């Protein structure tokens, strides 16, 4: 868990590639590093290139490797299968689905112009990038044959961020008044730095009873995780408020369930109204439609402290309500942590997706081995 908190402090929703199985790097024929419309990109073409492409979408504030070092083990999986891997940075940081959609699609078109039109394009991504992958295949199924969201922030961005980030900040403000700025007016440039996390840890240690309540509410394993999580939530919401032009969230009609304290909490928490334009922005970027027409396999850890499993469950419900349930398969791995999905498990899901695309046989949901 110290690894998770360090990742949160440094890069936000980082993929825990250190937890992936190590593997020998796949021989590559070409690595292209460049810029497209002012945005960095990287393309890796394996020596045994089969003409297919994996368009990879990274997560919140993750900096991709803009050098020639080998790709991480989960992305090596795609190269090992003969697919090229193309990944774009986004022109802005934070919860930036808007730019991620544009920049990823621009890179797909660039690849087709310079390397030939791929015979098969799979869009994949971790965390926020999983949502970007789903958004791309919903909006443009003609250019993608399948999607592989991993620990994806699926479902409505509005619902996920309100429930998992904004509401915990509201509760934290109630229990620890003054420890952080108002969750509806977080300052631009707020950082979940090690100094911020340490300061929150001292405040929490002085008043441990509320920390136990919030630990249960967030389904964390230990109260020691709470300072890092709260600091990260504040960073995400601060960046989103800057991008959206205000607070998107309204909790005036929210009833908080925190156990025996619930009555006092609901009487005492601060209530906030949403900025209408900010709310509209977040609903647009992105509220999934569930209108799938291509195979999608989503893989999630059972206990994810940053993107809970209910986010993927919500998306699965939406897909079934739209009559598109055939096109969505959800799998889980028995792990704790954000994106704690190994290279072996990624490979298994990718092979299942390719088999589904080739044969039309829908794979079974359940545990991803």
Strand content: 15-25%
The structural domain count equals 2
CATH architecture of the largest domain: 3-Layer(aba) Sandwich
Taking pLDDT < 50 over at least 5 consecutive residues as the criterion, the unreliable ranges are 1-22
Binned, the helix content reads 40-55%
What is the 3D form?
globular
* Major sheet: arrangement of strands: 1-2-4-3-5-6-7-8-9
Q: Secondary-structure element sequence?
A: HEEEHEHEHEHHHHHHEHEHE
Q: Give the mean pLDDT.
A: 92
Query: Which structural class should the secondary elements be placed in?
Result: alpha/beta
Q: What is the CATH topology descriptor of the largest domain?
A: Rossmann fold
Main sheet attributes: strand count, strand direction, barrel closure? 9 strands, mixed
Give the CA-CA distance, first to last residue: 23 Å
Instruction: Note the total helix count.
Output: 12
Give the beta-strand count: 9
